[in-house]
């Protein structure tokens, strides 16, 4: 699986397996070219879509239960859109001052430009900072050596009437370099838990992401009871067979 994921060189490659946990409809393993992830948003919705398209039938109509590295994740069908239940945070609470200063330096900002901050780790290890506006988020450039190996989410609010509530960016440092992810389900899931839980956002809302990479990602956030749901549209781009030696 890891060798195939390196060969595809896609941001994530998933493999669907028979479930091992009680109540799960299938098991998924998620690989990047560099290793395995316990959870990620795009692979969850895409894998669920592929499983259903291949004839998968969930135990409960309209609700699919996925087994992955963080445990069981529920995916529901909302018309033509799929949405996953945000997994619980593994780490929360404010960032320490030293880390805030490091992040500010890595973003070319002053520490007081970061108006809020929080650990929002639901598996990948996300830290999050809120800037004064969506435009401030879009204007940021990255000093990769200063960021080091951080997995960092940026969020800033759009003015009223924009159509989306927040602009989001996600960056993954790899030491002296790094990359920006165009749209990030896992980060939006944990951001939503933080933002809704603290009253910074009221569901339902939409977040935009990917503008700085010439993408037009839209993530749909909602909440039912205590559960935050993260939705997006799925499209088939490649369909075929691969023969492995």
Concise synopsis of the structure shown:
The protein is an alpha+beta fold and 245 residues long.
Our measurement of the CA-to-CA distance between the termini, rounded to an integer number of angstroms, reads: 12 Å
Residue-averaged pLDDT = 94
**Rough shape?**
globular
Please state the CA-atom Rg, rounded to the nearest Å.
18 Å
Count the DSSP helices: 6
What summary fits the major beta sheet? 14 strands, mixed
CATH topology of the largest domain: Diaminopimelate Epimerase, Chain A, domain 1
| Number of strand elements | 14
Q: Could you name the CATH class of the largest domain?
A: Alpha Beta
Order of secondary-structure elements:
HEEEHEEEHEEHHEEEHEEE
Instruction: Count the domains.
Output: 2
CATH arch. level architecture of the largest domain: Roll
Oligomer: single chain
Low-confidence stretches: none
| Helix percent band | 10-25%
The CATH superfamily title of the largest domain = Diaminopimelate Epimerase, Chain A, domain 1
Q: What is the strand content?
A: 25-35%
Q: Helix/strand-derived class?
A: alpha+beta
Describe this structure in words.
The chain is 22% helix and 33% strand. By secondary structure, the protein is of the alpha+beta class. The protein folds into 2 domains: 2-85, Diaminopimelate Epimerase, Chain A, domain 1, CATH 3.10.310; 97-220, Diaminopimelate Epimerase, Chain A, domain 1 (Roll). Strands 1, 2, 3, 4, 5, 6, 7, 8, 9, 10, 11, 12, 13 and 14 form a 14-stranded mixed beta sheet that branches. The chain is globular, with a radius of gyration of 18 Å. The mean pLDDT is 94.
């Amino acid at each position: 699986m890891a060798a195939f994921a390196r060969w595809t060189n896609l941001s994530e490659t998933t493999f669907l397996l028979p479930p091992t946990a009680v109540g799960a409809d299938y098991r998924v393993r998620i690989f990047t070219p560099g290793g395995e992830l316990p959870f990620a948003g795009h692979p969850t919705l895409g894998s669920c879509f592929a499983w259903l398209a291949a004839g998968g039938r969930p135990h409960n109509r309209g609700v699919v239960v996925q087994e992955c590295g963080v445990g069981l994740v529920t995916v529901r069908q909302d018309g033509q859109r799929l949405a996953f239940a945000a997994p619980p945070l593994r780490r929360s609470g404010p960032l320490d001052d030293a880390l805030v200063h490091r992040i500010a330096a890595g973003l070319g900002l002053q520490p007081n430009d970061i108006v809020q901050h929080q650990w929002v780790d639901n598996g990948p290890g996300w830290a999050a900072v809120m800037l004064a506006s969506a435009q401030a988020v879009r204007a940021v450039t990255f000093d990769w050596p200063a960021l080091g190996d951080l997995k960092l989410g940026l969020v800033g609010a759009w003015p009223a009437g924009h159509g989306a509530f927040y602009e989001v960016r996600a960056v993954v440092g790899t030491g002296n370099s790094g990359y920006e992810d165009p749209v990030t389900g896992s980060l939006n899931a944990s951001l939503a838990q933080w933002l809704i839980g603290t009253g910074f956002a009221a569901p339902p809302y939409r977040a935009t992401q990917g503008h700085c990479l010439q993408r037009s990602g839209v993530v749909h956030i909602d909440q039912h009871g205590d559960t935050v749901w993260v939705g997006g549209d799925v499209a088939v781009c490649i369909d075929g067979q691969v023969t492995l030696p």
